[in-house]
Amino acid sequence: MDSAHGLAEAAGKLGVTEEILLLAAHAKVLSVLTGEGAVQLGHGGRVVVRDGTWRDLVEATAASRVEPHTPVFDDERVAGYHAKALSLLIADPDADHDAETLLGDEELHLQVHGMAGRQRELPNRRMHELFEERVERHPDAIAAECRGERWTYRELNARANRIAHFLLGKEIQAEDVVAVISERNLDWMAAVLGVFKAGAVYLPIEPNFPAERIEAMLTRSNAAVRLTEPVLKAITGGPTTNPNVAVEQDQLAYIYFTSGSTGQPKGAMCEHGGMINHLYAKIDDLGIDEGAAVAQTAPQCFDISLWQLVSALLVGGRTVIVPQQDILDINRFLDTVEKAEVEVLQLVPSYLEVVLSELEVRPRELPALRCVSVTGEAIKKELVQRWFAHRPNGTLVNAYGLTETSDDTNHEVMTEVPATESVPLGKPVANVTVYVLDERLRPAPLGSVGEIAFSGICVGRGYINDPERTAAAFMDDPLRPGQRMYRSGDFGRWLPDGRLEFLGRRDAQVKIRGFRIEIGEVENRLLGAPGVKDAAVVVADGPQLVAFFSAAGDLTGEQLLAHAAESLAEYMVPSAAHRLDKLPLTDNGKIDKKALKAAADDLSRQGYVAPATDAERRLAAVWAEVLGVPVDKIGADADFFELGGTSLSAVRLAIKLKPAVSLTDITAAPTLSKLAALVEQAG
């Protein structure tokens, strides 16, 4: 049967014109391309493309008619979607119109195979074994430094070996979890290497985390040994020889805990193969080679801390550990980068903005610095423009990935401002396959919106001792049998040149200061407080978390936040908690988050006292810029930190107010009126 005859016959059976069938197919294609359940056709009609049959879609299209319209096929690929949609409609009007993909075999093959990262052969050795090879080649070269203290490759290896033999003396077995509870310093670095050398699993824990959260991580992971700073200091003897424990590529390497929606943090497990693949992606794309200095700046609980710590060791480079106190002092931080001749540096975009703000006011050459990578949160194009205006010959790399996928999976390597409206996430790194999928886990048409998913060596093993949450996100890859796939919950689309663009989150997960936070975990912690009946958290301007709750008794917002701080990391604790008699509900009985966000804005205005002096008004404008909040929300009695200020934004403020006030002044006098008085005193 030819297509024209088939179209006419199907139209007759369905009691509509042939044009209605063409429009129904067109509506289906538009819905697939845009990811929208309702589409506007050229004739002015709006068609809701609900689940159902082709017949249902034809009837919905017929009901939307105004005037004749001829659909326009933009290119050969979209025309192919139309042709397949018509073919399926004609073949069986009563079939589910979403049962088959509109993509042809060629595009399916392109997305599954042609758009993956390049194939890169990996050495059949683990990270610590490659480090040991470098120890043999140049034992007296500097491997790491921290605040002026330097260790050679020989010294670092000897210290790591002592720790490894200590662990083996504790009868550590393959894949036993070892918690390293230490500040970021050279001993921490040796401990990480020692854990790997012993064939154990590295679990980083920040010592300043609430005791309840630390205990939850230790319990969930079944940590066999805890390497605290006192324990590490006590390991002064023992063998310094390599333990030579056999470690396989598919053996578990590390666990990083991220925020979890159920109220408990979830521990993402990643294997040695994924780790080594990511390390080589960084080495290749950031140009890390022998002698190169890489800065280690990220907190231990942030997965990027690991590649920053060990990537240089694989190629004979040098790791420069920058303690958190030095990062919070922008001048000390830049002094470290300059004096240590750091070549490769990774920062969250918000801190890169701090660095640029300082350099724009007080320029420095930083001649060794040639590559800066940003990650952890979306980078705005304006910041990229500022970067290249300041360093036109530098390289800026936008890195994207998730803890569950062995860290970054995409690199956008930029030597100039991209021509796209937003900053792309880039192409997949070597040996990594990235998909953009529709709701049925099929590749979405190129350029259309879908969920970002990952396949291959990068995909971790799931969440430790958490089968339910593992099953919800990890699965066998339906497109590449034998591979694991991870659904990220991020939405994006492919750009015409094969780069990935990020478009937002599917769920209630947000990023605050570069850290992933599940709103549900914060809410569950609040709900667990004695007397709390109901609780909800919204993201207010800043961004910052603001909580609302109802409770029995006389529980105050301050008491509730203190309860939250007992188990949540500092960056997860809401900046304010407001008590209500009852939380507002939507028509279907759910908590009305939009109403609560509006209430957060209104509450910020209560008790508002307008800035009275020129200094207060000028300072309010600076606060508005730094905090990202409207200036009319900032009253004379406003507290910088209650408005969402963090240690990082306080550094940004100090830079803008130099030399009138310091970071210490902001911490001691955080209200607008008091800080304005200090500015006036300084002239």
UniProtKB/TrEMBL annotation:
<dbReference type="InterPro" id="IPR000873">
    <property type="entry name" value="AMP-dep_synth/lig_dom"/>
</dbReference>
<feature type="domain" description="Carrier">
    <location>
        <begin position="610"/>
        <end position="683"/>
    </location>
</feature>
<dbReference type="Pfam" id="PF00501">
    <property type="entry name" value="AMP-binding"/>
</dbReference>
<keyword id="KW-0597">Phosphoprotein</keyword>
<dbReference type="InterPro" id="IPR010071">
    <property type="entry name" value="AA_adenyl_dom"/>
</dbReference>
<dbReference type="GO" id="GO:0044550">
    <property type="term" value="P:secondary metabolite biosynthetic process"/>
</dbReference>
<dbReference type="Pfam" id="PF13193">
    <property type="entry name" value="AMP-binding_C"/>
</dbReference>
<keyword id="KW-0596">Phosphopantetheine</keyword>
<dbReference type="Pfam" id="PF00550">
    <property type="entry name" value="PP-binding"/>
</dbReference>
<dbReference type="InterPro" id="IPR042099">
    <property type="entry name" value="ANL_N_sf"/>
</dbReference>
<dbReference type="InterPro" id="IPR045851">
    <property type="entry name" value="AMP-bd_C_sf"/>
</dbReference>
<dbReference type="InterPro" id="IPR020806">
    <property type="entry name" value="PKS_PP-bd"/>
</dbReference>
<dbReference type="GO" id="GO:0031177">
    <property type="term" value="F:phosphopantetheine binding"/>
</dbReference>
<protein>
    <submittedName>
        <fullName>Amino acid adenylation domain-containing protein</fullName>
    </submittedName>
</protein>
<dbReference type="InterPro" id="IPR020845">
    <property type="entry name" value="AMP-binding_CS"/>
</dbReference>
<dbReference type="InterPro" id="IPR025110">
    <property type="entry name" value="AMP-bd_C"/>
</dbReference>
<dbReference type="InterPro" id="IPR036736">
    <property type="entry name" value="ACP-like_sf"/>
</dbReference>
<dbReference type="GO" id="GO:0005737">
    <property type="term" value="C:cytoplasm"/>
</dbReference>
<dbReference type="GO" id="GO:0043041">
    <property type="term" value="P:amino acid activation for nonribosomal peptide biosynthetic process"/>
</dbReference>
<dbReference type="InterPro" id="IPR009081">
    <property type="entry name" value="PP-bd_ACP"/>
</dbReference>
